[in-house]
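Lecture notes, unit on binding sites. The following record was shown on slide 14. It pairs a sequence with acetyl coenzyme *A.
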Amino acid sequence: MVAKKAVKSEPAESTGPQKTFTLTDDQTGKSWKLPVLQGTQGPEVIDVRKLYGETGMFTFDPSYTSTASCKSRITFIDGDEGILQHRGYSIQELTEKSTYLEVAYLLLYGDLPNQKQFDEFVHSITYHTMVHEQIHFFFRGFRRDSHPMAVMCGVVGGLSAFYHDSLDIWNPTHRETSAHRLIAKMPTLAAMTYKYSQGLPFMYPRNDLSYAENFLYMCFGVPAEPYKIKPVLSRAMDKIMILHADHEQNASTSTVRLAGSSGANPFACIASGITSLWGPSHGGANQEVLEMLQQIGSKDKIPEFLKQVKDKNSGVRLMGFGHRVYKNYDPRAQVLKKSCDEVLDDLGVKHDPLLELAQELERIALQDDYFAERKLFPNVDFYSGIILKAMGFPTSMFTVLFALSRTVGWISQWKEMIEEPSLRIGRPRQLYSGPTARPYVPMSKRK
Ligand code: ACO
């Protein structure tokens, strides 16, 4: 185990004249002044770090609805206005004008790169795309019908057993090398996962292709013949990757941060993010949306389906709708909806029944009071599956594509956390509701 060493970081931003929030105990009349912190954007935050020490009380917020778990400079979301920015740049502008690797650089390093910085970054990512040959055998331990996310959890965690030269998390060069390796190798591993599930040969990466092109080539190319990449598909893939690159402190990112707060190595931390992303309430929703549309089957069945969704006892949710933070249209869904039309158009699909069904479902749901009252709008997963299906990916691969795109967000957030001088292991407390102390009863005396 490597001992923690001081890491250099930018100074924390000034919080201005100290504003406070007064907390009063109604029974004793005693009050405490809690500091109020102000970020550069977004709501003010009551600093409760000293609360337990001063009052003997914890705060209770099991699903973090009102809790900022960290300070971050990477991504900003205004859920009421439907705003998403990475390092200050709007997601709309980034998807329109940038590329995935440029956004990756932005997330990782804080600013857009100049030409030299970008060329060096692309070179580093390109020349780390191959995986250790031994990893090919690693795959063979899995059944071919395993869910691709199950395979991804295993092989990504397994990377920590291969790259011992970059595992000192307190060394900035090691951190950077691990980050580059992860960004570079995820498409290779994701494509291998797909090929393995199909019983097809693995395709080695090609350094002459762009990040998105190379990924499509490794997924859909075969050694027996040349593979021609359709520019519309690689453009759409690149956009999908940008749209999924980061989303501040969601469940999987918070998982990566919490895992990493103990000093765990970055490959293991990213594997923990993959497990969290897999769930249907999070990244697994893109697979569920497509399965839901297939289940609904036709437009005339929509009212009956929505009746089930609104019935609390049915356990049915409108997948791809609703978000913990967005109480407005998810800006990523808007971009994807447009991309969907372009991709299907270019592929010569005049009428895609699933897209038409999704559009009608969205139209009806948005007019329904149930969704309006709860501020439920389409999220990023509502349209992504339709594009991915049109590209030829099976539904089980959808969440893998999300994981591959989100890796840069996870690793940027992990790096930011490690570089925070005040880093301490994450350790939530609890509201205990179990039995109080009781004596042990021997088995012979138990009823
Ligand atoms: N369909 C039907 N009702 C819903 C939906 C939905 N998709 N989402 C929320 N609601 C209802 C809830 O039943 C609840 O109603 P109530 O107030 O009458 O009890 C209310 O809206 C609030 O919902 P919560 O579950 O408390 O909201 P939360 O913020 O915890 O959940 C979540 C957010 C998990 C995304 C939820 O909206 C959901 O399950 N959506 C479907 C799954 C999905 O698309 N996930 C992808 C999210 S985006 C991402 O992770 C990349």
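Take-home: Strands lie at 19-24, 31-37, 45-46, 75-78, 83-86, 89-90.
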